[in-house]
Each structure stands twice: as C-alpha cells, then as structure tokens.
Write a structure and sequence with these properties.
Blueprint lengths: L1 H43 L2 H18 L7 H4 L1 E4 L4 E2 L5 E9 L8 E12 L2 E13 L13 H11 L5 E3 L5 E3 L5 H4 L11 H17 L5
Antiparallel strand pairs: 1-3, 2-3, 3-4, 4-5, 6-7
Length: about 220
C-alpha cells in the first residue's frame, strides 16, 4: 500500500512538473510576442493596425481572384499571424501566413509561409517568401488533427520571427536589421540588386506578374 501511495505521489509530481513546464513555455512565448510587437508598433505607429487589416484584405483578394501563386489559400485554412515585424526604416515588414490543413485526410502536415511587405513611394506591396512544411508527428501524437493556429504561432515565433530583436552593446533591445536580409540584400526574385530603383522595379514586376497569373474557376 505504501508503494502504491508513493507511486501515486510520483505520478502527481510528474504531472505537476509537466503542467508547470508547459505553462512557463506558453508564458515565455506570450512575453516574447508582446516584446516583439511593442518594438514593431513603436516603428509603424498607427500603420501597424492598418497594415494588419490590409494584409488580411490582401489574402482575401488573392483567394477571391484565384491567383495561381497563392492557390494554397483555396486549399487550406489560412490566416495572417498577429505579429508583423517592421525594420527601422519602416519600409519593410516580415509576417507569416499560418496554414492549417483542415481538409485533407491523406496529408498529415500543416505549414507556415513567409509574408513580405515592401513600401515603395508611400504604397505597400505584399508578396510571399519561403514556405515551411510542418509534419504533425513532430508536434503532436494525433497526426489526424491539424495543428491549431495557436500552435502555429508558437512555431512561427521560433522559425520565422526569432532574431527580430538583438541586444546592443548597452544590453538594450533593438531591431536586428540582418533579420530582413532576405528582402533587403536581394530583390524580389532573390537576386542581388545594384540600385534602389532596380529593387523597386523587381517588387512591382513580381506583384504585377502575380496578378497576371490568375487561375480560372
């Protein structure tokens, strides 16, 4: 009886530790999200909320117009992550499209697609970057259940947004401009560019090409 009692208390202790660890992890993610959002909003100011709405409207427009490069929007449940990271010049942003594969019974993975924004002459233009495939077996036991958007955000904090901030020599947080290297050092077609004008033209060319490649419903 004593042994059974000891086992019972060991199980309770183990469960308590797991719950505590999970709670701490969630708390750290929330704190990191708040920190990143605070710095990003201090740069974008009132534009942050406006651009979040604009980003969601853009996704709806891509889906409604059946743009071929964004066909996945019609195949999966997608939403823009609540966090958007702006560079110090407030002319580039990196966000994430959370992709939950709710409608397939044979593909047991979900994903994240990088969402890029570039400001050219006061106007913002959006396009996507790399995609990350997330096999459910790495994140949960039940591979038949899609990863929740909360879980996808948690993964995005690590796989997409990690590195947005860095500490300077004084130990204070600041925006890490290298975080935007993929859309700062290269043009929209992933080529090095020579002038700002050529960079802007590459973005406009890509956005225009996306709209020219409409699918037929």
């Amino acid at each position: 009886m004593l042994n059974l009692g000891n086992r019972f208390y060991h199980v309770i202790a183990l469960v308590s530790i797991l719950i505590f660890t999970f709670s701490c992890k969630n708390k750290n993610i929330r704190q990191e999200t708040i920190l990143y959002e605070k710095y990003s909003k201090s740069i974008a100011l009132d534009d942050y909320n406006k651009l979040f709405v604009s980003a969601n409207d853009t996704l709806k427009s891509w889906k409604t117009n059946n743009l071929q490069d964004y066909e996945f929007l019609n195949l999966y449940a997608c939403r823009i992550d609540s966090l958007m990271c702006f560079n110090s010049s407030n002319n580039k942003l990196i966000g994430a499209i959370l992709v939950s594969n709710e409608f397939s019974y044979t593909n047991f993975s979900d994903g994240i697609t990088i969402f890029n924004g570039v400001r050219i002459k006061k106007n913002w233009y959006f396009f996507t970057g790399a995609s990350i495939v997330l096999p459910r077996e790495y994140y949960e036991k039940d591979i038949h259940t899609p990863l929740s958007f909360e879980k996808l955000h948690e993964i995005a904090m690590k796989e997409v947004f990690s590195g947005y901030l860095k500490k300077n020599l004084q130990g204070k947080w600041e925006v890490n401009e290298d975080f935007f290297g993929s859309i700062t050092n290269y043009d929209a077609y992933n080529y090095p560019y020579s002038t700002q004008d050529s960079y802007d033209k590459s973005v406009l060319k890509l956005v225009r090409a996306n709209w020219e490649n409409r699918g037929i419903k």
